[in-house]
């Protein structure tokens, strides 16, 4: 029903910036809550950011507040994650996720999202 493809990852130095993109295809993708999660080696997949269907509300894990910004362009069926002031601890595979019916209290829960991309690697060196 919905397919997600991430892009924009790469290897950068601490303090640099990257913008990740997630292109969605399929039915009613613009009506889905969208989120970004990441998984570092040896760690569980964790919530990073989410954005409401209209783009009017955003949510972030404390460790990225003030550095990362999630946004969406429903006309392009895309969601973005602007990552500034990157740190080595941001190194992970980043995944885009989507769900048609999540409520606010569920946007941080990876188990509640129905659709996932394949991930894009972000490596930050000191």
Q: Low-confidence stretches at least 5 residues in length (pLDDT < 50)?
A: none
Number of strands: 11
Shape: globular
- Topology as a string of helices (H) and strands (E): EEEEEEEEEEE
What is the helix fraction of residues, given as a range?
A: under 10%
Radius of gyration: 13 Å
Number of helices: 0
Distance between the termini: 41 Å
Major sheet attributes: 7 strands, mixed
Beta-strand fraction estimate: over 45%
| Overall pLDDT metric | 94
Query: Which structural category do the helix and sheet elements fall into?
Result: mainly beta
How would you describe the overall organization of this protein?
With 126 residues, this protein is an all-beta fold. 0% of the residues lie in helices and 50% in strands. The protein is built from no helices and eleven strands. It has strands at residues 2-7, 10-13, 18-26, 33-39, 46-51, 58-60, 68-73, 78-83, 92-99, 115-116, 120-125. The strands form two sheets. Strands 2, 4, 5, 6, 9, 10 and 11 form a seven-stranded mixed β-sheet that branches. Strands 1-3-8-7 form a four-stranded antiparallel β-sheet, with no helix packed on it. β5 (46-51) and β6 form a beta hairpin. The mean pLDDT is 94.
């Amino acid at each position: 029903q919905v397919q997600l493809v991430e892009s924009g990852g790469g290897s950068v130095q601490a303090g640099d910036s990257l913008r990740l993109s997630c292109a969605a295809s399929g039915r009613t993708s613009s009506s889905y809550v969208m989120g970004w999660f990441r998984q570092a080696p040896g760690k569980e997949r964790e919530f990073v950011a989410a954005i409401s269907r209209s783009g009017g509300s955003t949510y972030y894990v404390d460790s990225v507040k003030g550095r990362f910004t999630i946004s969406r362009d429903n006309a392009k069926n895309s969601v973005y994650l602007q990552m500034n002031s990157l740190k080595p601890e941001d190194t992970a595979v980043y995944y885009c996720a989507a769900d048609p019916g999540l409520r606010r209290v569920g946007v941080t829960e990876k188990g509640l999202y129905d659709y996932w991309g394949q991930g894009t690697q972000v490596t930050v060196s000191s």
